Amino acid sequence: MPIGSMYEMPGHLIRRAHQISGAIFTARLTGFDITSVQYAAMVAIASQPGIDATRLSDLIAFDRATLGGVLDRLEAKGLIARQPSRQDRRVKTITLTVDGSALLETVKDRVLAAQAEMMHSLSKAEQDQFIALLKKFVGRVPEED
Fold it and tell me: Tell me: the pLDDT tens digits for 97-144?
């Protein structure tokens, strides 16, 4: 199989796109000690204060077992707080701390710049089409509540 044929394989291209997007995100947020998954979790928590880990894992499409480690690191950094639910003490609700909210606000423009950098080679129409196709590919996109 010629090497060029790899660039016709969606799996290879998706992997490369993931590498590129991750590198751009990391470069734009250097010094803030936050990963793209931690950022996604914090955005979801900010939009739904008091969310539990099961719902959060559904919202950001991240497996529950791995998400536990993400939440542990965010809590250790003082960016989130977990408390037992009032309805079910076995469930912990998650909220952003003041520091977590401040960090989201601080990095907002950098995250937007990273997204723009990822899409810079596409026209506006191509960007819209690309996003629409990615949404179709992943199968579902959580609704805003």
Answer: 999 999 999 999 999 999 999 999 999 999 999 999 998 998 866 665
CA distance 84 to 17: 39
Tell me which residue range forms the domain holding 126. Answer: 34-138
pTM for the model stands at 0.87
- The reply to whether 15 falls in a domain is no
* Total domains, the chain: 1
Q: Which two tokens stand for residue 50?
A: 């008091």
- Which positions ≥6 away from 50 have C-beta within 8 Å? 93, 94, 95
- Is residue 145 one of the residues assigned to a domain? no
Amino acid residing at 111: V
